[in-house]
Amino acid sequence: xxxxSITASAPSAEFRAAGTDLSERRRSGxxxxxxxxxxxxxxxxxxxxxxxxxxxxxxxSSIAAIGADPRIAAxxxxxxxxALGLATPQVxxxxxxxxxxxxxxxxxxxxxxxxxxxxxxxxxxxARSGNHLYGVAFDLGPCVAPHPSTMAAALLAYDxxxxxxxxxGLSIGDLLGDGSSGSSDHALAPGEMIRExxxxxxxxxxxxxxxxxxxxxxxxxxxxxxxxxxxxxxxMFQFIRITAGGVAPVPLRLAACEAALQGxxxxxxxxxxxxxxxxxxxxxxxxxxYKLDLLEGVVRDVLERLAR
Length: 308
Ligand SMILES: Cc1cc2nc3c(=O)[nH]c(=O)nc-3n(C[C@H](O)[C@H](O)[C@H](O)COP(=O)(O)OP(=O)(O)OC[C@H]3O[C@@H](n4cnc5c(N)ncnc54)[C@H](O)[C@@H]3O)c2cc1C
Fold this sequence. Notes:
The chain has helices at residues 3-9, 22-28, 63-68, 70-75, 77-85, 89-94, 97-102, 108-111, 126-129, 150-157, 172-176, 255-259, 268-277, 290-307, and strands spanning 14-16, 35-37, 47-49, 55-58, 161-164, 170-171, 194-199, 207-213, 224-233, 236-245, 252-253. It is an alpha+beta fold. It folds into 2 domains: 3-135 and 147-199, Uridine Diphospho-n-acetylenolpyruvylglucosamine Reductase, domain 3 (2-Layer Sandwich), CATH 3.30.465.10; 207-307, CO dehydrogenase flavoprotein, C-terminal domain (Enolase-like, domain 1, 2-Layer Sandwich).
């Protein structure tokens, strides 16, 4: 079946890739509409390296395969480490990149079929006045659930470009939105299917790391997670890019933190000040200020390792 005929057959249907997110919502009754199983096609599975060094990853590629690919690990270590850091080996083996990017919120109010919320056509966010212990620390929109996708935060650090069956060259930022829409987790149109993710070749000498703070050793979404890329030459940060997940309705680029490092010495003092800047623009909820300390700590740890 072609992309066009997929879309035409049921524009309001929900795609199913590996179903690790969707099946749970089907069982609970949160997802009830028609389903379309995404058919495997050569350009949606596996990785392709272009002559100019660009990497293209098919949306049906498994998270485990991305994490295990030695060339991805050598060229984009932040992507490989993010893939290996999420969920469990069993989930990673099945879960796909497209499904990871388009997965729905893990908020327990959203996942409860008996509770209305903004993402299910309701008029307010019950977590805001209820239990939001795992909610956002950057309160940027009406819904207080953090974005669930680890790969989205990593791909934001790499300025990834998304190809869908309806659009070419969609930036990862445009796919995710700015967090002000409480009703969705991404900006895909009905019937729009992610086909491929593109990554430009990184600058010479770049190093990258991913790290998360988590409430148990594995099998849990992060409280805060960070992906950072840096080129450090002659003891100076020549290039820096830092993104964070788990703390806002969309993965965030930590611009104030980057500004505190760009062109500066890779010293303990610069890094400590930059890590404090990771909280810039934060608006914690009554129960989520603790996430900001975790974020600062993870950023500092990642930067110290990159500078070594
Ligand atoms: C214990 C546990 C811990 C986890 N921890 C993490 C974590 O730390 N970080 C993290 O990121 N995830 C985590 N996950 C979630 C897991 O990564 C996702 O369930 C998985 O990535 C979804 O991929 P899938 O292929 O199964 O998607 P599906 O379940 O098939 O689909 C998910 C959603 O994406 C849509 N979709 C799927 N493919 C496409 C496509 N190509 N184009 C457009 N829409 C599409 C579907 O319509 C559906 O709405 C965890 C899961 C479990 C069970």
